[in-house]
């Protein structure tokens, strides 16, 4: 039986409508996971006494089929997840990338076979219209006590956004470039401590007592400097290098040595006793101070003192 052309058109229209509906249904099941921004700048200023701790966030976007996801962090230029390194030429500043400061789990990438606590992870329900978003956070931690030269220290991490879980990773869906830049300001600190004691920024005064004065009696202590720039140490003697007693013209001379070298003091004039071209370790540089009583003569009985003031400056 021959079918007229007009009778075939409805069948053709129905088939076309069915194909359009099928394409729309397939599109709704497509999974998309993306970082909201392709880059993230992580910046901060470092304090050798307090260190640096700062939290940062990123946003993950999703639409389509329900999915789990996780975010990985490479080791950076140090190739060590537990001791990452910010660099400024040959100098470095150690840092960590943690999930947070409570758990302190170092975040890693797939090369380290990470556990679920060593990545940032989440999940989305299915979404047929529009975008869903979630925020993930991590912490930059730079330990205190480091004294690299002043300047800007940097590292770059390429974060990966994966479908699935660390134990069953799926496809790499997106990446984010995280640039880290930490500024180390000029740092100068001086400390006066008993012989052999550690640097203590709070210890800026030291009393030395000869006891009953006798010729060649000696006392000493340590002057310590912690610095990340070249520095000079100056000293001023209130009495010009002698012990004096208030209300008396009598004085007692003494010899002042720094690391075994005699330093001549004159009243009111600052003398340079140290010039250092480099920076110190986190423990500081130590200089031995020694004071030896000179010839006593016949001074009046009483208490004799001198006050020495030390200062550290950049050249």
Question: Please, could you describe this protein's structure?
Answer:
The chain is mostly beta strands and 315 residues long. It has 2 domains: 32-184, Sandwich (Immunoglobulin-like), CATH 2.60.40; 188-313, Immunoglobulin-like (Sandwich). Helix content is 8%, strand content 49%. The chain contains 1 helix and 19 strands. It has one helix spanning 5-28; strands at residues 32-35, 39-45, 52-64, 67-72, 84-88, 91-98, 120-124, 127-142, 151-165, 168-184, 188-193, 218-227, 231-237, 242-244, 251-258, 261-263, 271-276, 285-293, 308-313. The strands form 4 sheets. Strands 11, 12, 14, 15, 16 and 18 form a 6-stranded antiparallel β-sheet that branches. A 5-stranded antiparallel β-sheet has the order 1-3-8-6-5, with no helix packed on it. The longest helix is centred in the first third of the chain and has 24 residues, at 5-28. It is rod-shaped, with a radius of gyration of 35 Å. Mean pLDDT is 90; it is low at 1-28.
